[in-house]
Design goal:
Elements lengths: L21 H6 L7 H5 L42 E2 L54 H12 L5 E2 L15 E2 L9 E3 L4 E2 L2 H7 L4 E4 L13 E3 L21 E3 L4 E3 L6 E3 L21 H4 L2 E5 L13 E7 L2 H5 L2 H14 L9 E7 L3 E5 L8 E5 L21 H14 L10 H12 L4 E7 L34 H11 L2 E7 L7 H4 L1 H6 L3 E3 L5 H17 L2 E11 L3 E7 L3 E2 L5 E7 L4 E7 L8 E12 L4 E13 L2 H6 L3 H15 L5 H23 L8 E2 L7 H10 L11 H13 L2 H8 L2 E4 L35 E6 L2 E6 L5 H8 L20 H13 L9 E5 L5 H7 L12 H16 L13
Helix pairs in contact: 7-8, 7-13, 9-10, 15-17, 15-18, 15-19, 16-17, 16-23
The chain binds zinc ion (ZN).
Pfam family, one: Sec23_helical
GO molecular function: SNARE binding; zinc ion binding
Keywords: Protein transport, Transport
Amino acid sequence: MGGMNMGQQPGMQSPPLGSHSHKQRTRRAYAPFNPEVGDAPSQGGPAGFPPVNNPQMPGFPGAGQQGYPSPAGPPITGPQTFVPGAQAPTPIPGLAAPYVRSPGAAPLPAGTGQPMGQQPAPYEPQKPRIDPNQMPSPITVHTHDQENYGSAQPYSTAQRLNAPLACTEFTAVDDGNSNPRFMRMTMGNVPHTEELLKASHLPLGIIVQPLAELAPSEEPVKLIDFGEEGPIRCLRCKTYINPHMVFINGGKTFVCNMCRHENDVPDDYFCNLDMAGKRLDSEMRPELRNGTVEFVATKDFIARQPAPASFVFAIDVTWNAVQCGMVAYAAAAIKDALYSGSGLPAGVRVGIITYDRSAHFYSLSPSLDQAQMMVVPDIQDMFVPINEGFVVDPTEARHIIEPLLDALPTMFANNRTAEPVLGAVVQAAHEALRGRGGKLIAFQTALPTFGPGSLKQRDDAKLHNTDKERTLYEPQDAFYRDWAIKLVEDGISCSLYLFPSAYVDAATLSQLSTVTGGELYSYPAFEGGRDGRRLMADVRADVQRAYGGSAVLRIRTSDGLRVDEHYGNLYMRNHVDVELAGVTSDSAIGALLQYDGKLDEKQDAYFQAALLYTTSDGQRRIRVHNLAAPCTTLIGNMFRSSEVDTSLNLIAKMAMSEALTSPLKGIREKLTDRCVQILSAYRRNCASGSAPGQLILPEAYKLSPLYNLALLKSPAIRGGADVPIDQRIYHMCLMRQFSVRKTMDYFYPTVAPLHMLAEGEGVADEVTGIVALPKLVRASYSLLDPAGMYMLASGGSLMLWFGRQVSPSLLQAAVGVSALEQIDTKMHSVPEVPTELNQKIRAIAGGLVPTRAGYVNVQIVRQGMDQAEVQFASLLVEDRNNDNMTYVDFVCAIHRQIQVEARPKGPSEPKWSYH
Ligand SMILES: [Zn+2]
């Protein structure tokens, strides 16, 4: 069978492997701009975009408004005013007068802004009435938070309110509650009744990232060995001993903070109490001092003998895979991950499989001179033909593994076979790793159409953007889910790297990663020159981060609360134990809380997440995270302590779960309704005295309209028929697996201006290594200076944008050429030239997307010249794009709906509809 050349530009060649040195790149001659060679705008951008060469990109004043229908709504009847919440008397940072006003403040001075009161109900295209710069901005919020927590003063987790945001660089000291990196709540104060929660419409939940990486300045988690008896636990509810348990009766009894059960203290754990009722040894015992500790697991927690983890790399070597450069880059990425940077986590062993219509296994035994290949041609009856030497210590077998990886692209250069048998490889990995646990890291280019688990092409464009589209989100048969569950049973997770040049049915294949606690990666139309560096960075990050196997997570809460639903890449056999075949420092699990009864408002509400897992070097451990949050009877406290970032993460995870049963259109409407209900509830309960025409946003939740809009625009749930189904699934998987920090990077891009860097900007701090960024620009095309240059970071990728009027001298200093036409847009990195500006730009690139590998892919975009500008513009979330409106328009639409909600209602009408 033949194949297609996937995405290779005619006349362009991927750089040869091993040519990653900057020297070689700078010696490359820059081809003059030739609109005939791949740079001309072409088809394929998101619908609704103007041609790229049109200087009126969406978002330019006037461009974004034309002909865009407004959602129906009543006229706005008062001055448009943002005010901070009643309990937050300071103005919203970054909002200039006249928009920062208190309820009941004097009318706007003439000429300082156009009040919106005179607008007719039907939307008429005209100039924006609100300066987008005066809308609540994530940049201001995050800058403010960074100033609060980035100082020398570390954050104590004993503080009761407002942990640093997920994107802030901070140092936490564990004073009895877990570091917020491990556990975050959507609100810091927990309502004492379900009624109070429902009245606010706010989500109540937790995001747990049990193995999150700590900052170098933070103390490592302490390990405690309680010997054969194991850690002290509540007899009734099995909560682990923690700083919130209270010792009474002279120290002979401890009261469980979850269920209030009074337990006897074992004799060998007894200690006298001081005058305040505190154990005299409590400062000496980490389990009584720290919110997060790790216990050595006793035999009861060991189902099978724990062993060091084994990572099996499986590379598709069919014709397509070789031709697009995937095989070469995957082999280079594996070699890089094994032998560069920090290397694999302690103890991890490695195996290698290649596959096309048959599967090839390699004996990597260190005693050999070179790797030995064994082919299993009959993939219907899969077995692993190697006993010893299939998984080996990568350091001991380096002289075998490195030459093998180097040789793979040549070995299969003339391979004409198609139809990579992923299903058989899953079976083989299961057999090889059964009994020891580990991870399958599979690189697959095509829909598996041969052998076990072969799938049909079922994508149907007619279903896209209809209510029936969701049938394509479900697996087409049970094979991959069934095998994923078998993998879970044996503690084997799966990272799946897809390289689709056509439909690969990511919905079915992604079961392998979503069920096993793994991750999905996707590189559509893979082209080595463009995507190779990203692949290498991803593989390195994937396999070098902390890893735990055969994990079970259990979240316990105070009596009166329970976890209603868990979200993330996980498997559940019952309602309480979250099974994670693999867990990494990036794994993040969401839990939505539900009420069983009423909480005692005089007590704190408690949460404990316990992760039983096997470390990469084979130690069985229980990591326990604890959090105490004050209970409240006041809705104002809930709003004040809410965290919009964490809420967005949870809401996005919930929406992805719902997408399997409800049409996306309905989900989009529900998300906006929820946003309106939350803001209406705030208005009704916390700012009822304000003028009807004022839009009042709670301080801690003021970014919720923007984030809601960003979620609506994400490829996971946006409207429009132009999102390929595999891409849709990929982005849905991202939402499921993202930590809070990654969600924020994904939803709101960072845009750093590079053309007027001040002293110190673009320079790494000598101690922390953190690169000082220039003052960031909001994500709107209208705010970009055509004489400037900007670096945009979004979801781990970078774009370098050059304005049309950028001066030759600036360009020379930045990238070493004097005209835009001379820039080689296929470089995918910032070229190295010996100037201070160039050095700073490269430092900023590294600072915006810090990766283990130390490099990322940079897409060059020249204003009005490159096709990539369509993608660039689509990331500017404040503009009209992605089948949705501008930030300003969206806030106006939300405002109208809030006014409808706020109208007095007849007695027969329900006040609120709960769901
Ligand atoms: Zn208990």
